[in-house]
Amino acid sequence: MISFENSKLIQEQQQYAESIAREKIRPNARYYDDYEHEHELPWDFARFIWDTARKKLDSLMPGSVVPDESFMLQMHTTEMISWGDFGFFMCLPWPALGGNAINTAGTEEQKARLRDRFQGDKPTWTCMALTEAHCGSDSSSIRTRAVKDGDSWVLNGEKLFVTSAKKAMIESDGVMVVWATIDPSAGRSAIRPFLIESKTPGVTIAKLENKLGLRASDTAVVLLEDCRVPLDNMLGSHMTKGFKGAMATFDTARPAAAASGVGVARATLDFLKEQLALNGITIRYGVPRNLLSSLERDIVDMEAQLRAAWLLVVKAAWLVDQCKPNTLESSMSKIKGGEVATKITQKGVELMGAMGYSRRLLLEKWMRDAKVSDLFEGTGQINRLVIARRILGYSNKELK
Ligand SMILES: Cc1cc2nc3c(=O)[nH]c(=O)nc-3n(C[C@H](O)[C@H](O)[C@H](O)COP(=O)(O)OP(=O)(O)OC[C@H]3O[C@@H](n4cnc5c(N)ncnc54)[C@H](O)[C@@H]3O)c2cc1C
Fold first, then answer.
1. Is the pTM value of this prediction over 0.70?
2. pLDDT 10s digits, 229-283
3. How would residue 1 be classed by pLDDT, with cut points 50, 70 and 90?
4. Distance 393 CA to ligand 1 centre (A)
């Protein structure tokens, strides 16, 4: 029988994550959004998570085993911390996107190396570098080169928009996963992921992007100039998965991006409902739609959309925990999560009128932050292509 009840463990950890969101995140969200504080790392928050919170939140500990619901737990934490603030969520010292890649494509030895990095006494981050100037959505046309030279791989290229590159490579002893081609004439089959540890010579954080939102999170241009790593730093070592390995990383990354979007959307909806309650307005659930006010219809519609998005995240996460393929469901959750995040936050600004547009409230910030849910980890259009290919049985070449 299917149960939609959260387990006791999830409920407890959700409550704890909510207390962090309310007490440690919300009061500081505006400071780190200010233009002059962009890229400033919320160190107090990072240290608190590292020293205290992750001992209580299983989902923040790499390699912690929670039978049957490890990824589900992660999605609940993701949603709740993003409800506090999306930018702060992106600053969580936990394995994140780079960790996803290592856990998806790495050998047992490489996964153990990742876990070791997360056992130290200083907060640690990972990042993943796929995007390049001429290759964002079409990640199969990567130009960054990896050339075998004796007992090393030598990497050269430029990566753009790398989330947490500064945190992983400069602020901590973290790792970066870089996707590069070992043979440009061989197309996607020659793409491989490489593990680069912080302080490795030949890696430069060339620029930090100024962004519309998520300003607490650093997003960097990374230069690789004769960056030499040992042969066994190719993830999966002699793996032949190549491009498929990169895509498999997204099977867990996309539901997470969707869960973040749902978190920001729920923050908006919760705020709107609080404001309505303060003004003595109650939503008349169960009353025929044609008798509802326009405002009531807006709220009811947003609630329905939000729930639909969350259920898609839950389905994608459940499949991960059952070790079943979830590429289709992962892309579905990502599209819906991105949509509700952008539409609900925009509606929130609209319904609150001028106050919604003012920096006195967080609504305008949530609207700016939310837009990225529809951009990174595959845009809405790209995820629609993934879904269409899966449903109609077309290959990447047949439908692009
Ligand atoms: C805040 C932020 C953080 C990021 N973090 C990372 C990171 O950590 N690591 C990393 O590698 N990258 C990261 N990215 C990059 C992100 O993944 C890319 O921006 C994204 O993949 C889109 O690529 P692009 O910007 O080159 O857009 P393009 O691929 O040029 O797309 C432009 C537009 O064309 C549409 N489009 C493209 N191809 C098709 C098609 N075949 N059919 C229909 N429409 C199409 C797209 O949907 C989009 O609307 C980040 C981006 C941002 C904004």
1. yes
2. 999 999 986 655 666 766 788 899 999 999 999 999 999 999 999 999 999 999 9
3. low
4. 24
Tell me, using a 6 A CB cutoff, whether residue 154 lines ligand 1.
no
Instruction: Determine the Cα–Cα distance for residues 16 and 179; give it in Å rounded to an integer.
Output: 36
- Residue 240 is encoded by which pair of tokens? 């032949």
For residue 299, give the 3-state DSSP assignment: helix
Residues 316, 330: contact at Cβ < 8 Å? yes
Say if CB 349 and CB 269 are below 8 A apart.
Answer: no
Q: What does the pLDDT look like over 141-163, one tens digit per residue?
A: 999 999 999 999 999 999 999 99
Share the mean pLDDT of the chain.
Answer: 93
The domain over range 243-392 is classified in CATH as 1.20.140.10: yes
Q: Give CATH for domain 126-233.
A: 2.40.110.10
Q: Which two tokens stand for residue 387?
A: 């879904």
Query: Is-catalytic flag, 79?
Result: no
Amino acid, single-letter form, for residue 258? A
* Residue whose CA is at the smallest distance from ligand 1 atom 13: 161
The 3-state DSSP class for residue 43 equals helix
Q: Can you give the residue ranges of every domain in the chain?
A: 8-117, 126-233, 243-392
Distance CA 224, CA 202 (A): 6
Q: Please give the Cα distance from 152 to 2 (Å, whole number).
A: 50
Q: Is residue 381 lining ligand 1, measured as CB closer than 6 Å? A: yes
Confidence of residue 67 (pLDDT cuts 50, 70, 90): confident
